[in-house]
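Letters spell out the chain; the tokens describe the backbone. To illustrate:

===
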Amino acid sequence: MTLERVNPPSLAAPSGFSHAVVGTGKVVVLAGQTALDADGRVVGTDVVQQFEQSLANLLAALEAAGGRPDQLAGLTIYSVDLADYREHARDIGRVWRRLVGTDYPASAGIGISRLWDEEALVELQGIAII
């Protein structure tokens, strides 16, 4: 497995994502994960806590598929309040670096009116190449 993060100088410098990721290996598509605990309850009362649980859930699925955090090639972040998400971006970044490191996937942040789990503030969906 190889991943190359591509950030051309003709685009604005990325912060917390890569503009493109090129990889070879087995593709793993990861279902959207909210901040559900093992009993199926949403945990965390703010976007940072819920992001951490959602990311931990995504990484658990990736690990079960035989992958590692640094093999994430793409990530879609769904948020019910993008302004709140952006306001807490630094704290969310610290969670990312603690759980994943400093390798960033190609990412998109999408504002939506609600998620499947009504109490959820954020959902993460990913693609990995292992």
About this structure: Helices lie at 47-64, 82-87, 89-99.
